[in-house]
## 1
Amino acid sequence: MKMKFMLEPDGQNGGEPDAHDGGGPSPSAERLFAGLLEFKETVFRICLGFCRDIRDAEELTQDVYVKVFAKLGTLRDLQAARAWLFRITRNICLNHLRRMRPPILSLDECDPVADSASPEQRLETREQLQVLKQAISTLPRRMREVFVMREYGQLRYEEIAGALGLRPGTVMSRLSRARTLVSERMRSFNDG
Amino acid sequence: MDEAKKNLEPWERLIENESQAALERFRRLDFRAALERRLKFVPRPAPWFRRPLPMAAGLAAALLLALGISVFTSFLAMKREVRELKEVLMRLPELRTPLAALSPVPVDEETARLIRLSWVFRLAGKRLDGGPGTDEEWRSALETAFAAPGTPTASEWRLRGMAKTERLLLEKRIRALIAAGELQRLRARNKSNQL
């Protein structure tokens, strides 16, 4: 059975009235869902940044869209829905971390090191990655969420501000402090 | 873009490489198919008319209901009061029951009735705002009427148990009596009796 939301996104959903009265999502809601599906990689990257495990990130990305689907009737326009999408991504990831403490650090599933790298380079990169993950996971929560959304999700300041209900200035200052902390920790590891 | 990549800090490059590697794996995954499988077990979103009411609408409905109940209760209370008033009006002749026997001093029936009315009025804690007769005048009227020390006890004046509507009705009657100069007449008569 093909799901109705598999419609091609047209990006033209501007909060038009929902005239569909039958069971299931209306055509406009389906278009909205399809539009939100375009951000799945961003959602995945944010999940990865939070949970530090690629399989969990995949699962969490699905969780996010399952939740979006369940709430489709309450969404109206794509702009507001995008901010909401990133906000629930953050919430789902934080809930996951709360349940899964201590965080699972899985490095085997995806190896960022090129195949051509020598075993020594490979080992060093893995160590650095381990330290980076530790550095991120020990950031204060408010800084961590801004850091992950920016560095992993590559969201703009305004988007992060919209998703977290903050002012862009606050986002910038938190991000700056988070980046400084991460840099310091990485530098101290490299120096040591 | 390349220039920007050159300026990346080592940890930023690490994040970028890690994310790219993870994304490659993610892209190989048929995300939509996987999501479809999960969505089969998710209840379809209900159409708008079957969705639960938003909190504001629920609150407004509850307020309206409370208001409706209040209005209805007031209406019932008003109906009850009118009925009681009618009963009182029907029993008005009973108020002429002689109280002379209960009074510590001999008084005629009319005086006793007025005293009883005024006493009832005082029990209701009412003041004749803007009308003739203050509390002091009422007390004076009572004292003059009895012309003897001591005030009637509750058991003597059985009217304590009167309904509010009855008291209000009596208050109206007392006002009328005062307006007609009844009280002054009583005072004068009692005074002349004392003399």
## 2
Amino acid sequence: MAAAGILGFGAYVPITRLQRAAIHAANRWYASGLGGLAKGEKAVSGWDEDAVTMAVEAARDCLGGSDRSAIGAVYFASTTAPFADRQNAGIVKEALNLGDTVGSLDAGGSQRAGTSALIAALRASADGGAVLHCAAERVTPTPASEREMLAGDAAAALLIGTGPVIAELVGTHSVTADFVDHFRETGELTDYDWEARWVRDEGYGRLMGDTIVAALEAFGVGGGSIDHFIAPVSVRGVPELLAKKIGIRPEAIADTLGSTVGHAGAAHPTLLLASVLEKATPGQTILLSSFGQGADVLLFRTTERIGEVRPRLGVSGWLARRRAEENYMRYLSFRRLIALDRGMRSEHDQKQSLPALWRNRKGVMALVGGRCTKTGTVQFPRGDVSVNPNDHAIRTQEDYPLAELPARIMTYTADRLTFTPDPPNCYGNIEFDGGGRLMAEFVDIDPQAIEVGAQMRMMFRIKAFDEMRHFRRYFWKAAPAF
Amino acid sequence: MARGIRDKVAILGMGCAKFGERWDKDEDQLMLEAFEEAIGDAGIDSSQIDAAWLGAAFDAVNIGPSGIPLAMALRLDNVGVTKVENYCASGTEAFRGAVYAVASGAADIALALGAEKLKDIGYGGLPVRTRGTSYDMFGVTGSAPGNFAQLASAYRAQHGVAADDLKRAMAHVSVKSHANGAKNPKAHLQKAVTMDQVLGAPIIAEPLGLFDCCGVSDGAACAIVTTPEIARSLGKTDLVTVKALQLCTSNGWEMQGSGWNGSYFHTTRVAATRAYEEAGITSPREQLSLLEVHDCFSITELVTMEDLHISREGEGWRDVLDGFFDADGKIPCQIDGGLKCFGHPIGASGIRMIYENYLQLLGRAGERQRQNPPVFALSHNLGGMPIQNVSSIAIVGLADA
């Protein structure tokens, strides 16, 4: 069995960074005790994002323009997967325009879901095809709770396999024990948290700490030789407490991104690993741990190739792509924690015909258009008859993926009449480099700063919710190029 | 080239209901209101009508499917009634059906009626609706102002027009139409507005403000057509005949192809060229007397002046500001107030435009009558949105012109 490891990595952090001071300013009258946490910012996704769309962006960040045909399976880990019964990894697979002959797996149920899926991916890939491991989280904490202050939205992706790895797996170690520090029943929106002091002492300190100590013993590695220690815990002081217990140098403790992203739940270990991989140098050890009804521990050693493989933006790039948000009400509305009047225009039925979606899944889910093999004309959507006015050739089109191509704005508006959870609805016609055009909704954009000719990049988002039948329709939107 | 429709069909009578928020009327009552005027003008009995066409765009909202609502509203004599829907061109489309029936000889006298009852939906503007199962999966469910507003962004970029200049020209379009609508007792809006009011109005869809948008209305309009010979045999002396009827439907080139820049209507340009040829008009800027165009939004009217080959490309905004299309200008546009003020009951609008042109040609337009006697009058409908639309043009004129 070949040594498995990490072939590539990527991340996604939503552009909007809600200021914790703004949260506290709104809630201070009620929860004055949270003032100590009212520092820094947390990443919050838009109304049209979920764990799946964020995972897709992280995967695109990881894969870049590389050949995706070697991917043998897609894993998706989250405790906030949008669908309980419709495979979420399958949606990621469609959006990435992977061939149908791939395996897939959803993991959830614990904060440990990300690392457990990663361990499974490392084991599976040792037998053959590469595994695209994605983890994403978008929790909806109770307003005015400590968790609301600490949590953030993010996703990360790793390409796992054998061959030219940038970090090879040294070993894994897992403990499963039904330690319930918090819980969320299926179908519920918010978590219920137990006393933080008990969780810190008995959970992180004892259960997680003991597991890491046992893991290092099993690996035959001393704590002092660890170069990067990833303890994805948002409670202040816990990574330091663990490092001390294990004998890890304080300077080896990885930034938990608490002040910039917040804690991204089951995605957080993978997110921090992606962040560390940006900075690591050859021959370093990376100790990755996670906690949730037990603990997972993974030890990696970077190879000479570390630094050669880079994500499109990576955690640092996404952190730089940032818009500070002071509007807590908008956040609450996007999470449907308050119900603003939406008007009759919002009552439009969004029922999706599933046979139509199946027939058009490449176009809708992966933004694959058509290219006429006779004239080269590109069009979206693909059709049987070419749009070329000089040659309406019939059945000459081949698949032509548009999602990764840059596009430019031809026309635009900022529409305050049509219903959108985030007015004004900015949209317009865009034209892709190399041909093909689309009337697209714009995201992550300043309505006052839209220009004809501006370059855009497509992003996978929720197009609309069918609230009668509890379905969500996905499609691609255009964001200012990044 | 096909021989065309020129002078083969005459208008025997026309009628138009009062447009507006007709809270107290059902659609069949509006249809009757338009019909009574038209049949009285025609001087015939309804049993003489051989076939009828009904234009309605939002049938799902109120009027319901099929031709039955018209047959029932007027108790037509069990003749064939066809319901047509072609977005905002539905009214002209109904007229086209009736005119073609007469021209073919299949009918001696045919009726076209457009009707729409929109003010029952509960909110202003057009009803939000599906554009089809496939389109809804990738298309943007924007508002009508949002769709048409995009013309302005492309027009500015294509022609290097400053945003303020274009905004002022757009405002002039609306100020002019309000001034005209104030003289029209059947108009939905009969109040003049100032440039400052228009420029200061809240934005609906950038850069369109409230007064850049027409509202939607309840209403109906009716035309009864026959051959010139039958019209004369029925005692008509001053005949208005159909000079051209053209319809152009997007085939996806604008939306999917390459070459269109987003600042104009490809379909209107094609339809206009064909219509002038059909009508024998060689210089529209010199020969047309009146325009009733689809001014759903001020920017639509502005670019349409170029698409109809009246203003030069990129110069329409200057003609607008120069007053070329004002009621006392060279070619008055929307002398009845247009969609902007007469109102826009979608399926009725195309026939309402022809109604106004018919009255003007016969000198029956009252206070708003164009003093310089008109000869050729053009009406234009546009359905859909700039990337994907139906454009229709009807030119009517005096029979001997």
